[in-house]
Amino acid sequence: MEHILAGTYPKEEDMVKEMEAFSNVLKKYGVAVFRPVVLEDCNQIFSRDIAFVIENKLIISNILPEREKEVDAILHVLDKIEDENILHPPEKVHVEGGDVMPWNDYIFVGTYSGMTMQLILLQGPTLMQ
């Protein structure tokens, strides 16, 4: 939030270069890299937010309604996963992939306060641009 308000939010072209370099490293070591389809007029820079993986389960995040169309960008990946391995949290559970970090036998989950969500909802799309 601080960087958005200060105008120091990273430029998309810089972030794309970083992601491409990371993808190349993964491919160098034989990792299959699946990328989201680019959607017109949609900020997809944080594609990990819409879903995350723990072991062999892909969890579709309950994200802000304004971001739901981002899931369309990974439908080609979802088609490769058996239905029993795709999970949806209960409606009241709001978690994004960027909030979840698996590490060895632990899973760290970030939290936010209701005030944070209220701020986001009040500011609406202007914060997301």
Radius of gyration: 16 Å
Number of domains: 1
For the largest beta-sheet, the strand count, sense and barrel status come to: 3 strands, mixed
Order of helices and strands: HHEEHEEEHH
Instruction: Name the overall outline.
Output: globular
Can you give a write-up of this model?
Helix content is 31%, strand content 14%. It has 129 residues and is of the alpha+beta class. The protein has one domain (34-128). The strands form two sheets. It has a three-stranded mixed β-sheet, with no helix packed on it. Helix 3 links the parallel strand 2 and strand 3. It is globular.
Summarize the structure in short.
By secondary structure, the chain is of the alpha+beta class.
Which features characterize this protein?
alpha+beta, three-stranded mixed beta sheet, 31% helix, single chain, 129 residues, 5 helices, 14% strand, two-stranded antiparallel sheet, disordered C terminus
What topology does this entry show?
Elements: H1 2-6, H2 12-28, E1 51-54, E2 57-60, H3 75-78, E3 86-87, E4 100-103, E5 106-109, H4 114-123, H5 125-128
Parallel strand pairs: 2-3
Antiparallel strand pairs: 1-2, 4-5
